[in-house]
Write a structure and sequence with these properties.
Layout lengths: L4 H17 L6 H4 L5 H16 L6 E7 L3 H7 L5 E6 L19 E10 L10 H7 E11 L10 H6 L4 E6 L15 E6 L2 E7 L7 H12 L7 E3 L7 E2 L5 E6 L3 E6 L3
Parallel strand pairs: 1-8
Antiparallel strand pairs: 1-2, 3-4, 3-8, 3-9, 4-5, 6-7, 6-10, 10-11
Bound molecules: hexanedioic acid and magnesium ion.
Length: about 260
């Protein structure tokens, strides 16, 4: 059964209130098993428009999620998804994160793309993405599910803007011709200890392939958009005082510090 516009607004309101009040809620699909992927994107869009109406907020790009097998296994979901990024989600590398401002914060390392010229959606390919990309750089994505126990169906997590809670940009911006992102190595450290390692190919075989999928899904990407291509490994749960860094072979290092 299709959900009405009023129900979509109500479901978006539940997620918005959970985020604002830093409390988790039951999965939307528990009360609305008819919530499908298309309707979930409508819920996501509703809240993103609400976010854009906030002071100083603007669209900055997209996030891809569940593009690696490690992430799909960690979350028990078997398909990729996408969410929307606004300026308020950009978290400066030098600013400590107050983990108490989030419900159950996690972080994961990603390869980010800065799109240099408009990319058409229908015909987007891996090569086309690389040709349209101004540069690639390393990022850490801060995640926070608004659902109880960080558990959800695919539709639930899409409605929740793919658990987006922040993006830390770091390292160096390299032209796509200057680095093979598929072979780019990454070492993930928590408080200086190695917790995981991966190569770019962990993301859909090639991070640019994931971005091409996104471009086809959303009908094209505009020049200036930032796209984070999805976590290379399972995420790390954050705690006060923790320092997490992702060191890439050529792209450099990006670090997130949590406030004590
Ligand atoms: O960026 C992501 O992979 C988010 C997908 C949703 C699952 C999660 O919250 O980790
Ligand atoms: Mg992510």
């Amino acid at each position: 059964m299709e959900l009405t516009t009023a129900t979509i607004a109500a479901l978006a309101g539940e997620l918005h209130a959970a985020e604002a009040e830093r409390r988790s809620i039951p999965q939307l699909s528990a009360a609305h098993p008819e919530l499908d992927v298309d309707t979930a994107y409508a819920v996501q869009r509703h809240n993103f428009e609400r976010r854009l109406a906030g002071p100083g907020e603007s669209f900055v790009g997209y996030k891809l999620g569940l593009t690696s097998r490690a992430k799909q296994l960690a979350m028990g979901v078997t398909a990729p998804l996408w969410g929307r990024l606004s300026s308020g989600l950009l978290h400066a590398e030098e600013t400590p994160l107050d983990v108490g401002s989030l419900i159950h914060p996690r972080v994961e390392s990603e390869i980010a793309f800065l799109i240099g010229r408009d990319l058409e959606g229908a015909t987007a390919t891996t090569a086309g993405v690389l040709a349209a990309t101004e540069g690639v750089f390393p990022a850490l994505e801060i995640l926070d599910s608004r659902y109880d126990d960080f558990r959800f169906t695919l539709a639930d997590v899409i409605a929740d803007n793919a658990s987006a809670a922040g993006v830390v940009c770091g390292g160096r911006l390299l032209e796509p011709g200057a680095v093979d992102v598929q072979l780019e190595g990454m070492v993930l450290r928590r408080d200086g200890e190695v917790v995981d390692t991966a190569a770019g190919a962990a993301v859909s075989g090639h991070p640019a392939a994931a971005v091409a999928w996104l471009a086809r899904e959303v009908g094209g990407l505009p020049a200036g958009a930032i796209v984070i291509s999805g976590g290379l490994t399972a995420p790390v749960t954050l705690a006060p005082g923790m320092v997490v860094s992702a060191e890439f072979t050529h792209l450099g290092t990006v670090t997130l510090r949590c406030a004590p």
